[in-house]
Amino acid sequence: KTGSMTLEVEDIAETMDKVAEMADELTGYVVSSYKYEYERRVEGRIIIRVPFERFEEAFARLRQLAIAVPYETTTATDVTEEYVDLEARLSNLLATEAQYLALMEEAENVEEMLMVQKELSKVRGEIEQIEGRMKYLEQTSETSLIEVNLQETKGLAEPWSASAALKSAVRGLTTFGRGLATVLIWLGIFCWAWVPPLVIWLRNIMSIS
């Protein structure tokens, strides 16, 4: 059984510590975790495993850590059929391995031994793969995976409103007007500074003419 949920919290780092402590209290463990910050947005994720029989308890305790829980889901997967199929394949491969071992003892020369050894290695590789998969299914069926996505409430965007948009537009227009006025004032100052030299230059030109 697996689960996923999104929690809105006040402090992601503190909540991640609490989730890890909870997993340990339930005789589970943390699979992975990370925290991500970008501008005003703060996010985090922590994935834990807890004993299968304590899955619902873990979900309930996680909800208590949140200000809000906008999303959650659970999924149950039955691996019985796959496990039975793996058992049958393993039994056949073990029988094949025994036959190759018998042939190895009956080999009359090095060439025959090498041929049998090659096939024996292939069978042993398949056996180890199946045994590994069966062990994984046994372990995962005993525990449940829970993915917890975290969002800080202070990093969430505020809802849009007409009054807020109008205030923002007025502030922007005021700032623009002040900037434009400053530019015009500076242009006026520099223009008057150039008027006297320009008049003198024109008079000199006219007197020469």
Helix content: 55-70%
In the sheet with the most strands, the strands line up as 2-3-5-1-4
| Helix and strand pattern | EHEEHEHHEH
Provide the structure class.
alpha+beta
Which percent band covers the strand fraction? 15-25%
User: How many domains in all?
Assistant: 3
Biggest sheet details: 5 strands, mixed
Q: Which stretches are low in confidence, meaning pLDDT under 50 for 5 or more residues running?
A: none
Total DSSP E strands = 5
Structure description:
This protein has 209 residues and is α+β, with helices and mostly antiparallel strands. 63% of the residues lie in helices and 22% in strands. It contains five helices and five strands. A five-stranded mixed beta sheet has the order 2-3-5-1-4. α3 (80-106) packs antiparallel against α4 (110-142). The radius of gyration is 38 Å and the shape is elongated.
Essential attributes:
209 residues, 3 domains, elongated, DUF4349 domain-containing protein, transmembrane, coiled coil, membrane, transmembrane helix
Outline:
The chain crosses the membrane at residues 183-202. It is built from five helices and five strands, in the order βαββαβααβα.
Show the helix and strand layout.
Elements lengths: L1 E8 L2 H14 L3 E10 L2 E11 L3 H10 L3 E8 L4 H27 L3 H33 E10 L9 H47 L1
Parallel strand pairs: 1-5
Antiparallel strand pairs: 1-4, 2-3, 3-5
Helix pairs in contact: 3-4
Organism: marine sediment metagenome
Pfam families: DUF4349
Keywords: Coiled coil, Membrane, Transmembrane, Transmembrane helix
